[in-house]
Amino acid sequence: MEIGFVKVEIDFVGKEIDSVGAEINFVCVEIGFVREEIDFVSKEINSVGTEINIVWAEIGFVSKEIATFNKEINFAVMKYNLVKQKALVEDNEIEWENTGNGVWRKIMSYDDNIMLVKVKFIAGAVGALHHHPHLQISYIAEGEFEVTMGSQVKTLKAGDVYFAAPDIEHGVVCLKDGLLIDVFSPMREDFL
Does 83 score more than 80 pLDDT? Predict the structure, then answer.
């Protein structure tokens, strides 16, 4: 009888071992799934890390662009502050600023109330029709210009003057290489 009982026990233990083996196999399969998940998450983390590195590189580029822009602004402010309220100005102290399309400008001196600007034109260059709230009086130092003032159009040459009241539409076409001496009141902040 004892042998039968031992046999039953052995069978029972064998079934238990088989059951534990099945559980181990199940856990191994689960570990496999977990490893696949970990691999997937690792790849995602690497991908996000790469994207973060790209963003940091872009931030670095933008920071450099901002720094360059700030230097340009500081240089422009410094350049114009050199002539602000300057009492004695020599022409060769100031460089011409190319405003494009055959027109160059020099801000000679200014304060908040008044500004004197030299504007050089090549023949054919245009000072487009525009208006502004400033008073403007312009002396034609050299050359010849077709000047539009409101509805009037007239050809003016060296020695002549035109006056633009606030908000009147005006403009010029340079007929012969020329130079205007513009005076604005108040100063033209948009030129700085």
Answer: no
